[in-house]
TrEMBL record:
The lineage of its organism: Eukaryota, Fungi, Dikarya, Basidiomycota, Agaricomycotina. Its main location: membrane. Residues 79-362 form the Major facilitator superfamily (MFS) profile domain. InterPro entries: MFS (IPR011701), MFS_dom (IPR020846), MFS_trans_sf (IPR036259). This is Major facilitator superfamily (MFS) profile domain-containing protein. Keywords: Membrane, Transmembrane, Transmembrane helix, Transport. Belongs to the major facilitator superfamily. GO terms for molecular function: transmembrane transporter activity. It is a multi-pass membrane protein. PROSITE patterns: MFS.
Length: 362
């Protein structure tokens, strides 16, 4: 038996013979300076150096917490309702101005600049979208979703108070930085609170909610811009968003994530985030300009487009070899199923987004 008075575990350099013969591992609890070991018939003393204090979990890479937390059916319905409100607010906002753009353009005498109102939202939502998944791993699902909702609400509020077309474009871009993470976070949280067997069912219903938001957005925008004011196209989301964020804060019992704030901030992949933002901007801008503002063979279109492809390549290299906690872990592409799904999603949005963008800009 080993008597001890401290809680720091070290390995003793020299062990008594009887301790070795009885299969002890040599890991013992040591007090400062002296260990007292009671053998079967003999009393042993061995001097040890005073161990240095060790603070657990303060060094090394941040360990991610498994945030899965299966909930009973009634609570799942409540959580799902709150997430559905978040998703409706996001999707409604992204298309509601499609029918209000002529009114907004006339109000500000914007001309062709009006096309930047939907483009600014799409640009920032696309750029920030990959970041939220990793932020939710580091800071927790609830914190990441609430951050996205707060940024989205502030941007929508300010958009309604815009006094110039430039202000409106800037505020729409700010709202997009939050809106880009809402749908992703809703799908992630669903994966945490329901079983694998039921996951497809709930995510399928959520896809229906997304379609609902896209369907009712343009008619609502047209009615508000003609009967009330185009500013309400942005303010109409605020009550829905506020109800959603209150529901999420109250009913979402997700597990806390270990680690202090400083360690969490240091764990964020800032290089990867910067490369994502720069690469997305350099690719999306020439795609917006091409054939509209400048011809496709113009250097103003080709130069940033090629530069954006290069930046995305650098991003992939950094995520593969440089990042401690990458935004996009490259090893997931070793799985054929995952790669196939991403290719299918890419083809889908290549087909869908240009159509939606053209309708909003026309």
């Amino acid at each position: 038996m080993i008597m001890h008075h401290a809680s720091i575990s070290v390995r003793c350099a020299s062990e008594p013979t009887w301790l070795q013969n009885h299969g002890a591992s040599g890991d013992i609890r040591v007090p400062p300076h002296r260990v007292t070991v009671y053998g079967f018939h003999t009393l042993y003393y061995t001097d040890m150096p005073t161990p240095l204090p060790v603070t657990p979990h303060t060094t090394g890479p941040l360990k991610l917490t498994d945030q899965a937390n299966l909930l009973p059916f009634r609570k799942v319905l409540t959580v799902f309702s709150g997430l559905a409100l978040c998703v409706v607010a996001s999707t409604l906002d992204s298309v509601i101005i499609a029918t209000a753009l002529p009114t907004i353009s006339a109000s500000f005498n914007a001309g062709s600049v009006i096309s930047w109102v939907p483009s600014a939202y799409m640009l920032t939502s696309t750029s920030f979208q990959p970041l939220y998944g990793r932020l939710s791993d580091i800071f927790g699902r609830k914190a990441a979703l609430c951050l996205a909702m707060v940024v989205f609400m502030i941007g929508s509020l300010l958009s309604g108070f815009s006094s110039s077309i430039i202000e409106l474009i800037v505020y729409r871009g700010f709202a997009g930085a939050g809106g880009g993470g809402i749908i992703n976070m809703a799908q992630i949280i669903i994966s945490d609170v329901v079983s694998l067997r039921d996951r497809g069912k709930y995510q399928g219903i959520m896809s229906g909610v997304v379609a609902l938001g896209y369907a009712i957005g343009p008619p609502v925008g047209g009615v508000l811009s003609e009967r009330v004011s185009w500013r309400w196209c942005f303010w109409v989301n605020l009550p829905v968003s506020l109800s959603a964020i209150c529901t999420v804060l109250y009913v979402l019992p997700l597990k806390p994530v270990e680690g202090g704030v400083k360690r969490k901030l240091l764990a964020v992949d800032y290089v990867g985030t910067g490369l994502t933002l720069v690469g997305s901007v350099l690719i999306i801008l020439p795609l917006i300009w091409g054939g509209v503002t400048f011809p496709w063979n113009s250097p103003i279109v080709l130069a940033p487009l090629c530069s954006g492809v290069l930046v995305i390549f650098l991003f992939c290299c950094w995520e593969w070899k440089g990042a401690n906690l990458p935004i996009v872990p490259m090893h997931i592409f070793k799985h054929a199923t995952v790669t196939g799904v991403y290719i299918a999603m890419f083809i889908k949005y290549v087909r869908f987004r240009p159509t939606a963008q053209t309708r909003q800009s026309s």
